[in-house]
Amino acid sequence: MYLKSLLKDKNYILLTVSLLTLVLLFGLNLAVGSVSIPFKSVINILLRDSQESIVWQNIIFKSRLPQSITAILAGSGLAISGLQMQTVFRNPLAGPSVLGVSSGASLGVAFVILLSGSIGGVVLSKVGFIGNVAITISAIIGSMAVMSLILYVSQKVKGNVTLLIIGVMIGYIASAIIGVLKFFSVEEDVKAYVIWGLGSFSRVSGNQIAPFVIMMLITIPLSFLLIKQMNIMLLGDGYARNLGLNINRSRALIIASAGILTAIVTAYCGPIVFLGMAVPHLCRSIFKTSDHKLLMPSVAIIGSILALGCNLISRMPGFEGALPINSVTSLIGAPIVASIIFKKRANETSE
Amino acid sequence: MKHRNRSANITISSLKIGYKIDKSRYKIISSNINTQLYSGELTALLGENGVGKSTLMRTLSSFIPKIEGDINLFSKPIDNYSVTDIAKMIGVVLTDRCLIKNMSVYELVSMGRAPYTNFWGVLSNIDKKIIEESIDLVGISNLTNRDIDTLSDGERQKAMIAKALAQQTPIIFLDEPTAFLDFPSKVEIMRLLHNLCREFQKTIFLSTHDLELALQIADRVWLMDKQQGITTGTPEDLSLNGDLSSFFSRKGIEFDKDSGLFRVSNRYSKKIKVTGHGQKFLMIKKALRRNGIDVSRECESNTIIDTKETNSNFIYVYHNNKKIDVQSIDELLWCIRDII
């Protein structure tokens, strides 16, 4: 009994440490960049002290604050989505992109960016705000279309592997169509599409941040309502059904939750790879639990930390925003996470 | 055949089981099943692979729909129960190996409380007490905090049974609970299940390939066969009326009516007279039979084996009235091979 309470305490300590890290990284994201702003001034500016320099105020309120908030919400959204996918499919390689939801978003964006130039004669990448809104909406429509298809299929087929394969196939079809679209598009549009595909937390700015924050603040708490069902699902379909779980309904709800989170993040930030798949593994090795009551909050926090960290690196003085976020997550984050997981699991034979 | 003090938890009549292939076609596995599962009894389902044991079990726990007929659970059609109702009446232990990482025995057993806990799955003090009692009942309290992927197959099987106990269902189904286990663990699991029946009046229904264990421990046996369908009865009744013998006779297994146990059927090339009684006699009989030699106390043969001697010599073999003494059964077998 003593050991158990100690373990529990250890997890609380770990959660507190991660929360503090999150706050620290948030501060660093506001202070560090091509223009360095002292911590004290950052705090003054956040407290609406008008004595600080207007330039600094603008940098923080117009650029760094929205960027950091976006990173936090996107990071936790993707991590939760990844955890949900891994639990539903009982597959450690599953992630937010596995069901083709982000491919759907890419397809929607490809249609808008690439076709508007060749058919409508408007180079969307030059239209500015309206162009951004059009991209966001098309991404959401694209991913929701794929998700509805997956949900429909999930009610028809029994096996999870079948569903997984169908999702991967949808991804292939989407990238094939995007390839065709690219071939027939103007060079400028293709470049705009490629840049969207590199992902960024800074695209959400000004008027766009409000809808993004509101949607994430609704969907993230909603995903927490599925905790008990996800715990039962760990045991596999047979046991889960015997414990009174309606498998088809729970599976649909969890996939819908993961899909919507991925869709919103992808629509506003582009397809961010790696975070969603890696964070759940990281949390399982840190917290040593399979209980979603602990895993859900921890992936949300660790996901935010990783997103903020990657954002910070991509903005380091010297890179000047030249590093796209996807390159940072993969190039720097992936080896770190891989090594941590490798160390924890080197002596395990399975998986 | 009605009995006063016996109540059936599950009554099955003209049941047809199988799988749906497409909209209108079915793959029928077994049909015309009529039988009852009595409360407080351990019932063993025996039958060869592919005969439909798992399908029957999955149908009875309403994982898959029946094709025709009636299944009554506590004298109400099983289809009238919701998934949550059934979760509180039938607990299952499946053949899935369940190697979930980072899940402790306690957490696994606590899953059994899922049908009772609130929306978030928070355990009340009563739930915690039931979980600890269930772990205690299967005798693995020392493993409470161990991760289930570090347990042996037998220990994990006990944890799974504890999960079913925590579910507090009057009925427990187990699909081949003794597969993968070594012999002592098989016996241990069977005895544990038998105890649960006797002490806690659980109705236990299990499928198994361990015939001898099942016949020794089960209160009732369901013999499932492609031709005959399902035959039920106590192991003793089935052995007296010849059902067990005829059930297994086609499969190269001989049923020994005297001991109520099975024997691999051998073809005997010779018969030898062996005199004596007791364990030594039985062991010699067993060893000779394995070597294709039948044994009898009455027959006439050139070779006679005398096991009655009680002095230092183990066994005497008389061959054409010549006396040979041997020290072990091993030596006896070599000796017999030389003579014959």
Quick structural overview:
Chain A is an all-alpha fold. Chain A has helices at 2-31, 39-46, 54-89, 101-120, 129-156, 160-183, 187-198, 209-224, 227-233, 237-242, 247-269, 275-287, 292-314, 325-345. Chain B has eleven helices and 17 strands.
Please count the helical segments of chain B: 11
Tally of strands of chain A:
0
Beta-strand content estimate of chain B = 25-35%
Look at the helices and sheets of chain B and give the structural class.
alpha/beta
The overall strand count of chain B is: 17
Overall shape of chain B? elongated
| Multimerization state | heterodimer
Structural domains of chain A: how many:
1
Largest interface: A-B, 26 and 33 residues
Secondary-structure element series of chain A? HHHHHHHHHHHHHH
CATH architectural category of chain A: Orthogonal Bundle
How can the largest sheet of chain A be summarized? none
Give the helix proportion of chain A (percent range).
Answer: over 70%
Q: Tell me, rounded to a whole number, the average pLDDT of chain A.
A: 84
Spans where pLDDT lies below 50 across 5 or more residues of chain A: none
The CATH class label of chain A is Mainly Alpha
Rg on CA atoms of chain A, Å = 21 Å
Mean pLDDT of chain B: 86
Q: Distance N terminus to C terminus of chain A?
A: 31 Å
- Helix and strand pattern of chain B: EEEHEEHEHHHEHEHEEHHEEEHEEEEH
Task: Describe it.
The complex is a heterodimer of chains A (351) and B (340). With 351 residues, chain A is an all-alpha fold. Chain A has a single domain, classed as ABC transporter involved in vitamin B12 uptake, BtuC, CATH 1.10.3470.10. In chain A, 76% of the residues lie in helices and 0% in strands. Chain A has 14 helices and no strands. Chain A starts with a helix and ends in a 6-residue tail after the last helix. The relative contact order of chain A is 0.16. The mean pLDDT of chain A is 84. Chain B has 340 residues and is an alpha/beta fold. Chain B is 32% helix and 28% strand. Chain B has eleven helices and 17 strands. Chain B has helices at residues 53-60, 83-87, 105-110, 125-137, 153-166, 183-200, 211-217, 235-240, 243-249, 278-290, 329-339, and strands spanning 8-20, 26-38, 42-46, 68-73, 76-77, 90-93, 171-175, 203-207, 220-225, 229-233, 253-256, 261-264, 270-275, 293-296, 303-306, 315-319, 322-326. In chain B, the strands form four sheets. In chain B, strands 6-7-8-3-9-10 form a six-stranded mixed β-sheet, sandwiched between helices. Chain B has a five-stranded mixed β-sheet with strand order 14-13-15-16-17, covered by helices on one side. The longest helix of chain B has 18 residues, at 183-200. The model of chain B has no long low-confidence stretch (mean pLDDT 86). At the A-B interface, helix 9 and helix 10 of A face helix 2, strand 6 and helix 3 of B.
